[in-house]
Amino acid sequence: MTGQPVLIFDGDCGFCTTSVRFAERRIGIHARVTPWQFADLAALGTTPDRAGHEVLWIDRGRVYGGAQAVARLLIAAGPPWSPLGFLLRVPPFRWVAHGLYRLIADNRHRLPGGTPACARPVDPR
């Protein structure tokens, strides 16, 4: 594994793919970007279940998911994005970011660019 961070996203999800492409163009992603379906997840220290549940930022063996992955992406992008990334790491902003991320991730199939392939399987509980 190289020293470059890795951004893992759901390549089957139209909303996720559109979001990552937007971030590449507008924010600048300083990482290797790959859909989880084509990544060696075990070598990266994660699982298909987690990668299908949330976007992942993997850096130096540490795996950050969801809103914290977005925070790390923003920090790595540098100014003017990094202050927002640092803000998303501290309570109560961290809690709000987590709730907003889950709301969006759980409803991504309903959002622009979303398709039925974006929907997560229903929890059997």
Automatic annotation (TrEMBL):
Annotated InterPro entries: DCC1-like
Name of one Pfam family that matches: DCC1-like
Source superkingdom: Bacteria
Name assigned to this protein: DCC family thiol-disulfide oxidoreductase YuxK
